[in-house]
Design brief:
Layout lengths: L9 H18 L2 H4 L10 H23 L11 H5 L3
């Protein structure tokens, strides 16, 4: 958070950051998105899908905490998930 200006425009900075990442991703050729820099390493696409998966999982967990859910929260194995990204 120290890198974000303390100017009361947090949502604007988040939106701008999203726009910048989106532009970067859209500027990459498909071959680059699917390239592995080493064997057993994730591609850029797999990293992006992993981030999306994590956001969904953490949003659900936050909802469970907010609603005082009593059911234990399941874990997840990121390497199993990435096979379907």
């Amino acid at each position: 958070m120290k890198l974000v200006p303390n100017d009361g425009l947090l949502l604007k900075h988040l939106s701008d950051g999203f726009d910048n990442i989106k532009k970067l991703i859209l500027s990459l050729p498909v071959e680059k998105l699917l390239d592995r820099y080493a064997s057993n390493k994730w591609t850029i696409k797999e990293v992006l899908v992993h981030i999306i998966d994590d956001e969904r999982i953490y949003a659900y967990r936050a909802l469970c905490f907010a609603r005082n859910e009593k059911t234990p929260l399941p874990g997840f194995e990121q390497d199993d998930y990435v096979a379907f990204s």
